[in-house]
Specification:
Number of helices: 7
Radius of gyration: 20 Å
Helix content: 25-40%
Structural class: alpha/beta
Number of strands: 12
Strand content: 25-35%
Order of helices and strands: EEHEEEEHEHEEHEHEHEH
Largest sheet: 7 strands, parallel
Length: 237
C-alpha cells in the first residue's frame, strides 16, 4: 500500500530520529481526514530534496510525534529550470494553473499585473497551500517559489534565463525544433491573460528585445497555454 506523503516545515535528518509536528492543520488532517493514529507510517519531506519514512509514535491534541525510520532522495526535477510569469486571471483558474505547474516541476511562479489582468491581487497563502498539496501528490521534493503579484515591468527586471513570450497573434510558432535550438538550461515563460497581452505589454517586450512566439492557430485559455508551453519546454529533447 502506498504511504501518504506530506510536506512539513521541520528540519529532518536520520541523525534526529524523533520529530514533533505542531502544525495544527496538518495534525487535524492526519487524525480526522486520513484517520491516522499511533503505529501508522507516513512519508514526510521539507523541500531539502530528500523524503523520510516515519512512524507516528503519538498523536493527540494539536501535536504528533514521529520516529524517522528511513531516508531517500526525491525524484530530481529535470532540466531546463523553468519559471512561469503568468498574468492574473480568474482566481479559480489561476489556482488550478499553480497546481498543474507544480506537478510539472516549475521552479517559481510570478503572478503578473498586466494591462488586461482580471485581478490585481491574489491570496498567496492559498496558492502556497495548493502547491504543497500538488507537491505531496506528485512526488517532487520541493515547492515552487510563488511571488506576490507584481507589475509586468518589475517582473521582467527580476526573472532569470532565456525569456520566452507567448502571444496568440505572433506569426512565429514555437516548434519542437525551435525549442531544441534554444538549448536553454534556464528559462522564464511569460503567459498573458484572457484576451492576450495589451499593446503596452507588447511594446515593453519589444524594448527588451524579447522573443515572441505563438502556440499555434487555436485560441487557448491562459492556464492551458501555460501548461502547453511548460510541457513543450520540459519534454522536447
Amino acid at each position: 500500500m502506498r504511504l501518504h506523503r506530506f510536506y512539513i516545515s521541520n528540519p529532518l535528518s536520520l541523525n534526529d530520529t524523533s520529530v514533533t509536528i505542531s502544525d495544527e492543520k496538518l495534525v487535524h488532517q492526519w487524525k480526522n481526514v486520513f484517520r491516522l493514529g499511533k503505529g501508522d507510517s507516513v512519508i514526510v519531506f521539507n523541500g531539502s530534496g530528500k523524503e523520510y519514512e516515519a512512524v507516528i509514535e503519538d498523536i493527540s491534541g494539536s501535536a504528533a510525534a514521529l520516529e524517522i525510520s528511513s531516508e531517500q532522495d526525491c525524484p530530481a526535477i529535470p532540466l531546463p529550470t523553468i519559471h512561469v510569469a503568468a498574468s492574473l486571471i480568474k482566481k479559480e483558474r489561476f489556482e488550478w494553473m499553480v497546481e498543474k505547474l507544480t506537478e510539472l516541476g516549475v521552479t517559481s511562479i510570478f503572478p503578473i499585473v498586466s494591462e488586461r489582468s482580471q485581478l490585481k491581487q491574489l491570496g498567496i497563502d492559498r496558492l502556497v497551500s495548493i502547491a504543497k498539496e500538488a507537491a505531496e501528490q506528485s512526488g517532487r521534493g520541493s515547492l515552487p517559489q510563488i511571488s506576490s503579484p507584481s507589475a509586468l515591468k518589475d517582473v521582467i527586471g527580476h526573472v532569470k534565463g532565456t525569456l520566452i513570450i507567448f502571444h496568440g497573434d505572433s506569426e512565429e510558432m514555437l516548434t519542437a525544433a525551435a525549442v531544441s535550438d534554444l538549448n536553454a538550461k534556464e528559462l522564464t515563460i511569460f503567459i498573458g491573460p484572457e484576451g492576450g497581452w495589451g499593446e503596452g505589454d507588447l511594446e515593453l517586450f519589444r524594448r527588451h528585445d524579447m522573443k515572441i512566439y505563438s502556440l499555434g492557430d487555436l485560441t487557448l485559455r491562459a492556464e492551458t497555454a501555460a501548461l502547453a508551453a511548460v510541457s513543450l519546454m520540459r519534454f522536447t529533447k
